[in-house]
Amino acid sequence: MKAIDPASLSKKENYAFLTQTIVPRPIAFVTTLSKDGVLNAAPFSYFNVVSADPPLLMISIGKRGGDKKDTSRNIVETGSFVVHVTDEANVEEMNATAANLPPDESEVERVGLTPVESTVIDVPGLKEARVRFECKLEKHMTFTGNEGETDVIFGRILHYHVADEVMGESGKVEADKLKPVARLGGKEYAPLGEIFTIDRPK
Question: What keywords is this UniProt entry annotated with (predicted)?
Fold first, then answer.
């Protein structure tokens, strides 16, 4: 087995290794609202749930050239955002929002996505997603590396939205109906794949 010291690798090399080995990763499809009222959308695969009580999720957002990306700047400035689950039906739109647009241009408008009003926050969600989470900023942290900084956002989930068609008869969200898409390394993505069950030890 080969041993590798992360300190011996560049930021790009560490990114490649981590994204090729920590797989699959869920993709947060995030909408935020700028102070000027521009609705931003962007995807992030350094993302996961971190707690059920309180319900918290985390998104890691690398800075671009030392500057905050629109998503992290908007979240820090306004305190709220919406996270959508990326699935087979919206993966193309999700990918299209990764384009590097200026802050005054909306990815939602450019891609042709449909904003929908949220229940408890001002930031709209996206009709094209079948599961979304309305969040408020719980904690913002910044980590500094050798070649840049990363914003880490912890969001408290204030409201869930889920489409009827992904719910089973028991009221459980069924993965085979949701059809989530995961991020792998490089340009690669993966659908749900085969589902199997393992009983947990008592």
Answer: Flavoprotein, FMN
12-190 architecture in CATH? Roll (2.30)
DSSP string, 36-86: T--EEEEEESSEEEEEETTEEEEEEEE-BTTBPPHHHHHHHHH-EEEEEE-
Distance CA 19, CA 184 (A): 6
- CA atoms within 13 A of residue 115's CA, in its CB half-sphere: 17
pTM here is: 0.95
Q: Which pLDDT tens digit goes with each residue over 54-110?
A: 999 999 999 887 789 999 999 999 999 999 999 999 999 999 999 999 999 999 999
What is the maximal distance between C-alpha atoms in the chain?
A: 54
